Structure formats: structure tokens, C-alpha cells
């Protein structure tokens, strides 16, 4: 009998604990049982970061405030810090040679373009290449703080870095100046896109091809960091890849 009473008491406690833990989840839904916009947009962002949602053109209009709150708030930096910390922990385990490199994307990986996207709906507006090129020409993007911390740590470990960006070769001078102005002042190579060589070819093809050239010239890609899955997929992607958050746009 004592065993039975103890069992029933344990079940009741577990049920009450379960109710207590689930209560905050119920607060996130409306009174008619539909998920709130906040919950739906959080699920949308998860789908984006996991690469389950692909080929999307804009942030859903209903999620503009959610995305703005995310990228302007503490969560974005915390998520970035978690990724960058893991990159550093991994890098410390490596036996580095003179031909080992980390590959980094530039926009939303090293440089932050929130000043631009805040004026264009945080991704709700369709991407305008001309408007973005005008923004790049200003050279006013600032460093993503957690990536800059990571960069400095990799430099202290003696690791060489290569910056591989979809910015065009015509934007080299302003990109170099912007990178150096915000603290990314040393690199092994800065690779920009030659539109004549990649007309009609995807970003995935461009980045994989340039990584192949790196390895064929004798480098070994020991790490690869980017905010888009096209930075991290395809051939010659490196020994390990790291995805930084970016819910504002998709590059396929």
C-alpha cells in the first residue's frame, strides 16, 4: 500500500510539474488556440537557419517587427557569440601549418549592414542590387562584434584568414577600406567576384570554385564561416563549417 501511495504521489507531482512547465507555452498562443505571430515568426526563423526554408525572396511582412527585434536585440549577438565561441574552441584543437586557412564570408559575417536593412524593412522589401551597391560605396558598415572578437583570437593563434565575398571586384577598394576601418586589418587573401567569370552561375558554384582554387594552390581550408548556406555548401567547403544567424535575406 505504501508503494502504491508513493507511486500515485509521484505521478501527481510530475503532472503538476508538467502543467507548470507548459504554462508559459500556452501564454504564447491566442485564446482560440491559434499560434501568435511571435511564435509563427520564431518558427519561420528556425526554418531559415536550418535551411529547411529555401528560395524565399523576402521576410514575411507579419514578421518584420519580430526580425527587427531579433537583430537589434540581445538574442542576435548571443547567437553569434555562441557560434564564434565554438569556432575558437575548435581552432584551439588544431595543429596549424603555414598553409592552413579559415575562410570567412564578408557581409553579415564580418561586416554588419543593419544601417541599410533598417531602412528597407529588415528584409521585408525585395533586395535592390543598385541600392545596396550605393550603400557599400559609402563604406560605413560596422564590424559584427562577436566575429571581430573571434578574428582577433584566430590572429593570436597564428591562423591565416581568407575573405571570400560576393561583392564585386569593382568594390575592392571600398571593401578593403571598410574592413580595415573596423578592425579586420590583416588577411591572406580577399576574393571578390568577377562578374565576367561567373555570369549565369550560382553563388554556390562561385564560392565552391574559389575554394577549389585555394586548395589547388596549396592551401588547406580548416574552417569556413558564413551567414548563408551557400557559403558553407558545395565542394571544398573545409574541414568544418559554422553558420552565423541571418534572418534578413537568402542567397541561393
UniProtKB/TrEMBL annotation:
Molecular-function annotations in GO: acid phosphatase activity; nutrient reservoir activity
Keyword list, A-Z: Glycoprotein, Signal, Storage protein
Parts forming coiled coils: none
Matches recorded under PROSITE patterns: PROKAR_LIPOPROTEIN
Signal peptide (UniProt feature, chain positions): 1-17
Superkingdom, taxonomy of origin: Eukaryota
Keyword field contains Glycoprotein: yes
Keyword Transferase: no
Stored InterPro entries: Acid_phosphat_B-like (IPR005519), Acid_phosphatase_pln (IPR010028), APS1/VSP (IPR014403), HAD-like_sf (IPR036412), HAD_sf (IPR023214)
Family classification: Belongs to the APS1/VSP family.
PANTHER family: ACID PHOSPHATASE-LIKE PROTEIN, VEGETATIVE STORAGE PROTEIN 1-RELATED
Function noted in UniProt: May function as somatic storage protein during early seedling development.
NCBIfam families noted in UniProt: plant-AP (TIGR01675)
Protein's recorded name: Acid phosphatase
Organism: Vigna angularis var. angularis
Taxonomic lineage of the native organism: Eukaryota, Viridiplantae, Streptophyta, Embryophyta, Tracheophyta
Name of the gene: Vigan.09G211400
